[in-house]
Amino acid sequence: MITGLDIVEWMIRITNGERLTIKQEDVKIRGWAVETRVYAEDPDHDFMPSTGRLMRYRTPAEDVDVRVNNGVFEGGEISRFYDPMIAKVTTWGLGREQAVQRMRMALDEFYIQGVSHNIAFLTALLANPRFREGRLSTSFIPTEYPEGFSPAPLEPEDLNAIIGAAVLMHLRYMQRAARTSGQMPGYQFCIPDAWEVVVNGEYYPVNIHAMSEGFDISLAGGRNDGQIIAVRSDWQVGDPVLRCTVNAIPNSFKVDRDGLGYVVYHLGAEVSVLVRTCSAARLARLMPVKVPPDLSMYLLSPMPGLLRSVAVTEGQEVETGTELCVVEAMKMENILRASRPVKIAGLRARPGDILTVGQVILEYESGAQASA
Questions:
Q1: Where do the structural domains in the chain lie, given as residue ranges?
Q2: Which of 26, 188, 216, 262 lies 20 to 30 Å from 166, alpha-carbon distance?
Q3: pLDDT over 70 percentage in the chain
Q4: Cα 177 to Cα 183: distance, rounded to the nearest angstrom
């Protein structure tokens, strides 16, 4: 992309006995190019491979500045027998910063359902200050993420963009509902101007003003009182990718409907958003928080794969570091070990079983956990 020459084509031609018809001085370098590799792996769980069927697969729009080399197709399967690479994405720009920014936008349009993937990790790397400055080394990832991968906190402008995208989506759903035929006279569906947007448990009151191809969203309350988020888009209900401008700045989001709310993927962050009426938000604040179940009494499979062996028996007491079992996936054997002393209460899986992510392998009598 920086020379205009297809190097692989030339490799094939030369192997076939053809002569190279260009000289070094004919090769002109123009701009920068960046490549990322999209893999079926889970960065939140030590990059464990992910398998399954690609239920939805939508790549970024390609043009002269964006290229996608696919290794899969929608409906295809990522199996446990082969390398889990999904695609390579390459972007070009006049300078490094422009190429990186185009890559971030391209990854925000890459939509995959059915398997875990590393797109959020790639996007976070591209936003990392050290990466942006070009201060790279082979120890970059363990140095920058010593406790494992976690997305960087959202900047205020990124949070505003997510609020704008969620409000636009919700109001498009409401506008569709308002057009439903056969509504009882006098009780037609009305769209209020005041709403509350709930982002990861935080409430943001907003007032809405419909505009051509979008909305002006006015934040109400707090230090951002009166701030305007102008969002414009031709997005239609059901589209998994939302392209829009937020305060005239182009943005892309991957979006999923989640019950009454939405899951928005943007710049490496996965954000749960609800858009509620003011009365519904007032009542929602009174609801108790659901506590997640305690799974510390179980050894769960961290990846899909074959349970190759189990090294312990029911009633056995083991020490920290003792091998518990081996899970085979993606041509690798992963040894799961006890993270502290524990007694085995029971075996929930047998050698030869095909495991799914999170499937119970062993049960403990105390709250120990195991690690790979």
A1: 7-144, 156-179+188-284, 298-371
A2: 188
A3: 98
A4: 10
